[in-house]
Specification:
mainly alpha; 2 helices
């Protein structure tokens, strides 16, 4: 396992990726463990919002405008 602390850089790391049949893990990490999740410290973000297809942003008029014009 490679551990990098906040603010640290890890330079010049060479990795070799083997095909699955060549890998022999004696202990695979449990990615569902709360301890592992706490170590990952992933940010909780939401990109966008869920809207119905009837939303004005999906109208025929807006479809003709294209992606380069603002609504």
């Amino acid at each position: 396992m490679i551990t990098i602390k906040p603010g640290e850089d890890l330079l010049n790391l060479d990795m070799l990726v083997l095909p699955p049949q060549k890998i022999n893990l004696t202990e695979a990490p449990d990615l569902t463990s709360p301890d592992t999740t706490a170590q990952l410290d992933l940010p909780s973000i939401q990109a966008g919002e869920i809207v119905p297809l009837e939303d004005h942003r999906f109208s025929s008029k807006n479809a003709r405008r294209g992606l380069w014009e603002r609504i």
